[in-house]
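Aim 2 progress update. The chain analyzed this quarter is reproduced below.
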Amino acid sequence: MTSAPHTSPATAPVHAAIAGEALIDLIRRPDGSYLPCLGGALYNLCRALARQGVGTQYLNPLSRDRFGRELAAQLVVDGVGLAQPEPVQQVTSLAVVHLNAHGHPDYAFYRDGVADRAVSAQGLSAACATLPALQLVCTGALALDARDAAIYLPWLAAQRAAGRCVVVDANLRPSVMPDLGAYRSTVHAALAHAHVIKASDEDLEHLAVPGGDALARAEHLLAAHPQADLLALTLGAQGAWLLHQSGHQCFAKEADLLQVVDTVGAGDSFLAGLLAHLLRQSQAAGAASFAQHVGGLAADACEQALRHALASASLCVMEQGCVPPGWEAARAWSQQHPAVQAPR
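Predicted structure tokens:
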């Protein structure tokens, strides 16, 4: 279940710390059997960031069971550091995945008493405090379960107060949340700490954000969270937008149809590509902090980062499961496949 190693050493300075689920996707095959694949949105993001050359640490514990050992091994192969290298007794989370005719997944999750939820706000903050080069923290997806709000919301508040850039990937899974109202409230509470928000058109519908279309909903969401500097709106095959609080907006879409195998991990690869590009911009500009760079982002910098993010997602959907591309592969794709720059 592991793949070839990449060049991001776990000993590199850690610029990104990621908290959230690590699980096994059991993907149903046409013959009715299930293919186990390493997954979880935040786990995928860790791998994708490391493959893009970003020093990354995964903050949650992993299980001592076979699946947990597989998850840990792949993180090590990809160059991700483990904040908790010692495994825990709790079992690994499972997600049963059915893919439709277009390769789009729907999920059923098994997450009671699991390893990645055996964490506390204090533990997350303590791990971050040991990382002197830390520039950004990210969570989202299943970590935004209202039942875990007392873990992630105080941690996000503490990280923003410490001057780190807070990234929240909405990535909603409403079908598995017992109280949709409480879930929406927790998502909005997490977004209230964010400098960078990522949301899909489906996320905005699940959040019941007002607006006549996805872009209008994204504009409304960004206006409702004035502390956020940047919102990435993904539209699947229809491309993506970046909206900046200053008023910059840019759009990109692949000009040609892709040979899509499935979309597992595409949004995670997109976000990793976006953050990796923005981090390189920040370092090249000598910004005092990554959060400051994002706050002052110029229009052309938005466009360049969005194109790299889109290329990262495009390469992922042409593979089975989540196989995030490296920096050079995404850069080459973006150069060889110019994107549509305005919506049709």
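Residues 16-340 form a domain with the UDP-N-acetylmuramoyl-L-alanine:D-glutamate ligase fold (CATH 3.40.1190.20). The chain has one domain: 16-340. These observations will guide the mutagenesis experiments scheduled for the next reporting period.
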